[in-house]
């Protein structure tokens, strides 16, 4: 179940890509299949070991193009262990809403992105998330749970400003290039879960809707694809924002100005 549109991100074979907060690796695997040089980054060593094992299995099964590489790296989003400008593309999907010092994490993402590179950030969309919080305290009070609800304006502001130097010298801000919404079919599921109890997986309505989502993911029936296209702009659970870091020429021009 992918959230980011890799065509819109500009992902191509040979691109060096960071999947920050990779989790179980859903975006990392697809980028690897597309021929990218992928680093799956996360705090959870156990999940990263599972991701590493699947990277190996994908290569052995011939599911990735010749020359594509993939690895995992454990660490802290507030101090990424990578050089300035190391990555062509960065994905940070459904992770910033968990991080208290989100501005620091965003600045780190901008730092390790090369000039001219692109960044995709997805977070829970404001309206579906507000409904979840109002229906259930357990939804967001769980350990490691969501600690904030973003508006698009807030997150765009934080990311674009993160590209400016802290010392007052001239410098270009990150460029906001647009947004999408995804997973419209998933919002009602979480509303149901929050209403009946987020841990109550055996509730008949929750079980029935979960089967629908599994059918959507595994079989991708035309009817549900059409329903998703209608619902995504209205109640899509995820908001995806796309940014580009100004290229070297733009930064030099700003410095001269």
UniProtKB/TrEMBL annotation:
Indicate yes or no for the key word ATP-binding: no
One BP annotation, GO: methylation
- In terms of superkingdom, the source organism counts as Bacteria
Task: Report the CDD domains cross-referenced here.
Answer: AdoMet_MTases
**Keywords on record:** Methyltransferase, Transferase
Q: Which InterPro entries match?
A: Erg6_SMT_methyltransf, Methyltransf_11, SAM-dependent_MTases_sf
Q: Which GO terms describe its molecular function?
A: S-adenosylmethionine-dependent methyltransferase activity
- All copies of the Methyltransferase type domain together span 18-121
SUPFAM superfamilies named among the record's database cross-references = S-adenosyl-L-methionine-dependent methyltransferases
Q: Any stretches that span the bilayer, and where are they?
A: none
Recorded protein name is: SAM-dependent methyltransferase
Q: Which organism is it from?
A: Nocardioides silvaticus
Species lineage, top-down? Bacteria, Bacillati, Actinomycetota, Actinomycetes, Propionibacteriales
């Amino acid at each position: 179940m992918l959230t980011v549109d890799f065509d819109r991100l500009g992902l191509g074979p040979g691109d060096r890509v960071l999947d920050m907060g990779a989790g179980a690796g859903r975006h990392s695997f697809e980028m690897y299949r597309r021929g990218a040089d992928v680093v799956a980054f996360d705090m959870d060593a156990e999940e990263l070991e599972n991701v590493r094992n699947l990277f190996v299995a994908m290569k052995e099964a011939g599911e990735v193009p010749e020359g594509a590489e993939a690895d995992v790296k454990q660490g802290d989003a507030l101090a990424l262990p990578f050089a300035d400008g190391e990555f062509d593309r960065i994905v940070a999907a459904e992770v910033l809403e968990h991080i208290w010092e989100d501005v620091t994490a965003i600045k780190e993402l901008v730092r390790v992105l090369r000039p001219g590179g692109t960044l995709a950030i997805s977070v829970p969309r404001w309206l579906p998330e507000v409904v979840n919080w109002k229906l259930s305290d357990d939804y967001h009070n769980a350990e490691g749970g969501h600690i904030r609800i973003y508006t698009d304006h807030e997150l765009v502001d934080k990311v674009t400003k993160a590209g400016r130097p802290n010392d007052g010298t001239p410098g270009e801000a990150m460029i906001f290039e647009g947004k999408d919404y995804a997973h419209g079919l998933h919002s009602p599921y979480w509303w149901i879960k929050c209403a009946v109890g987020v841990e109550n997986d055996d509730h008949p309505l929750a079980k029935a809707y979960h089967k629908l989502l599994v059918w959507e993911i595994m079989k991708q029936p035309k009817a549900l694809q059409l329903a998703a296209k209608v619902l995504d702009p209205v109640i899509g659970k995820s908001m995806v924002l796309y940014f580009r870091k100004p290229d070297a020429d733009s930064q030099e021009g700003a410095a001269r100005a």
